[in-house]
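Please go through the protein record below and see whether the fold suits the sequence. Record follows.
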Amino acid sequence: MGLLRVEGLFKAFAAIRAVDSVSFEVRPGEIYGLLGPNGAGKTTTISMISGLLEPDAGEVIVDGTPFGSDPQKAKRIMGVVPQELAIYEELTGRENLEFWGRMAGLSSGDAKARASEVLAALTLTERAKDAVKTYSGGMKRRINLGCALLHRPKLLLLDEPTVGIDPQARLNILEFIRGLRATGTAILYTTHYLEEAESLCRRVGIIDHGKLLAEGTLKELQERLGGDRLFVLEADLKDISPDSWAGFHQRFRVIQKTERQLVVSAIGSRDPSDCLKDLLGLPVQVENVTLKRPSLNDVFLQLTGRDLRE
């Protein structure tokens, strides 16, 4: 049973359906990725789950209790890391941690002890007495994450926690988040970075225009595209339509087409060599055909007809 269950969540701003009947669950010890482009509805979903926005319809259930019936209970077991940094730049790293620990209900002594533990875990002990305004972007992100962890939440909401930082800092944060999974924490992780979702999340929900289009493990989502392989055909495809090729749509599903490239999956359980023969025999001057494993972006392309990063 999920520590967090979202059922039919809906939120509109005027005529815009920001979140449209979204349902999913996050289980203890699981990182569930909510993957979609900017403006897809990820942050609005997080805001409703954490109580910052009231849903127009639907329900958020935290640890078996509807959020609306006991908001304080839900907030006590929840940690939230917003996309925008929620830290005080003039305060030191330790002061930020202790402040947010007290806000979460810890005693002064517990907040101090826990702040020391979190600083060590985030490898920030040596900078604990420095003002946060002197920190790098990656260090600020780590302190921002640490502030949500002082009270040891059972449920952690992470809204694009690695936006705007360098690759090494991102790797450090991702490794720390992986460690939280081992403690049994249920983690909802929103991102538009494909590689993060693929390496971090056990299950992924793909959201666009407020709708949850698909969800599952990476393997399950790959199965939507015909298994563990896609064929990438390179040729001059300008003004050429696969619709004109006899029998093509009975054998292949088009994932993406550009003027120089056609990405397809095979329909049915066919031998890859047979698929390659079919593609090389098409009525077009084929320059190259390669095999690749389907990515989350390929799933997104199939569902929406556009690239995830658009």
About this structure: The domain at 4-217 is CATH 3.40.50.300 (Rossmann fold). The radius of gyration is 23 Å. The chain has eleven helices and 14 strands. The longest strand covers residues 16-26.
